[in-house]
Request: fold
Amino acid sequence: MNSLNKVQARITVLNAEQVERIHAYTLAVLSTTGIRVDSERARAIFSRAIGNSVDGDRVRIPADLVEHAIKSTPPKIEMFDRAGAAAFCLHAREDSQTHFGVGVTNLWYQDSETDAVLPFSRKHMEISTRLGDTLNSFDVISTPGVIRDVDGEHAEVIAALEMVANTTKPLVLLVSNTSQFEKALKLLQHLHGDLAARPFVMPYVNPVTPLVLNQDTSEKMFLTIEHGLPFIYSSYGMSGATTPITAGGTLVMLNAELLAGLVFTQLVKEGAPVILGSLPSVFEMKKMISAYTPQTMLLNLACAEMMAHYGIPHSGTSGSGSGWGPDLLASGTLWMNHLTACLGKVGLAPFVGGNFDSLAFSPATAIYSDEVIRQARLFSQGFTLDDESVGLDSIHSVGSGGNFLMSEQTLTLFREIHEQHSHIWPGFSLDQWRAEQSPKASDLLRKHAFEVLANLEPPEDHDELIGKGEAYLRELQ
Reply:
């Protein structure tokens, strides 16, 4: 379509001069302050590349090595579903749809009817994964919780098994224990075969902010690169605690962490696919919690624009965590995040559905977000402005004082327009609302969530995969 015929909203946070200034500040941090590298094996890789710039566990990274790493990194990553069909492409150099995911690593499960909070169990992992598989706005499943009712030695491997058996969508894999991380990859390879040919798994790793490449993270990066998988390298910072209290200082320091991880990745294997991004938050000193604010949403967009400048696929924040349930508190943050993500350059927003600072996974919150994402995407698509869409002949035909109820355009497009209305709440008039005993919107959301959860179905090969996976786990014991 001719771009002149498309009316479309977009958000841009940084201008070209600001991008260059952020990059210059970042290079100064890397070359002067440097990063701490805890792994001896990782330090050896840095040492071979930059020699005297490694001083004990301190690694100072020169600008030329950063620039080489940026140029070596693939600008796009194609993801597939478990059956091998194309799922989506994260492309740093092209405008494309933001992709959302259900997760991540919640310790608790929040009942959709009562808001009761329960320890996250294996059954909850099954339900949460199937829910993400069912909801159309979600493109990935991102380890919804930490299973707490099974043997701790293999709990995270069992979580990977439940995920792969209960969805065909791509997976973002978060495993805290390095030994279990390796076992989880081997389990998925045992069940699926070659993971790298048409990748449907993206491991997620993060440094320790501020400016530490810790032992476990570097080991997981080694393992992921050896398996030929793309992975997300994401820094999490709290302004005023683990990052500077100013937005500018936070952006520069988190950007430095990301580029340090990028350099390390390309030193391990040049051309290795990696997705970079940050989860900026602020530290609420009175309540001793992290929180998302309008400033952190701006930082999320700014980070995405920096990655687009570098030509590196991006993963950012998902706006979850502020709610106490599927409530007003959650909805404001979710709307702000999902809409701005779709209007900006955010590539992947993988962690939706958590409440209480992302400690409790709420299916009802995920279902509400599914509706928000759907409408945010509709908004970001814009509308067409050309002869056919304006329809001057139709306007002339109806004339003054008429209506367009039976016009050809209306008869052709009314179903499409109807789809833009809420899929959760009916469009009650005041009289209808009174006739229905004045229901609360939250009660109708919970009713809708109950119906969705009651009708979840597993993939056809669920039982086969669970059986093969549990047999494999028995051999590990």
